[in-house]
Design the sequence.
């Protein structure tokens, strides 16, 4: 299994490729149409010096977009924006926590959209987690100091380049 670093373009690219190459994902999400962004709160100790947003736009099971967003673009384009710490997202992506439970407990906050709307798309959260974990994820708290320094520099560079 390929190892990719969390919150990097390589991660989202690997996830999009996995989605598009596995008809099971399209089939499981064929009834889903949603534009959702996920806010990863700043955590300097993790090399995430300011909040970062990524999102997925799906229309009847077709993945239209899986990318990083600026705050303005996310607000303008997404139906839902949900935020949490990187540690909380890690628990969900490692399947140590469930999205619905953490959302209901307030560990994941709704930044934009309706709670009723999120609960309507929530049954698809396990499939979405599967999509995002088709490659093995390396989280910043699992990196050596040298790897973390390189990660911080790489994140800063791609954010500068892409304006996110």
Sequence:
């Amino acid at each position: 299994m390929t190892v990719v670093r969390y919150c990097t373009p390589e991660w989202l690219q690997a996830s999009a490729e996995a989605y598009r190459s596995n008809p099971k994902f399209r089939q499981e999400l064929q009834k889903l149409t949603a534009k959702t962004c996920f806010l990863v709160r700043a955590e300097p100790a993790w090399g995430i010096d300011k909040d970062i947003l990524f999102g997925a736009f799906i229309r009847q099971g077709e993945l239209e977009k899986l990318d990083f967003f600026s705050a303005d673009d996310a607000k303008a384009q997404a139906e839902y924006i949900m935020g949490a710490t990187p540690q909380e997202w890690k628990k969900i992506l490692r399947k140590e926590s469930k999205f619905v439970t953490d959302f209901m407990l307030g560990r994941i906050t709704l930044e934009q959209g309706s709670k009723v709307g999120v609960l309507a798309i929530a049954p698809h959260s396990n499939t979405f987690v599967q999509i995002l974990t088709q490659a093995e994820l390396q989280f910043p708290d699992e990196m050596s100091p040298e790897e973390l320094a390189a990660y911080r520099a790489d994140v800063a560079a791609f954010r500068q380049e892409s304006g996110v």
About this structure: The beta strands are 3-5, 33-40, 52-59, 62-69, 80-84, 109-112, 136-138.
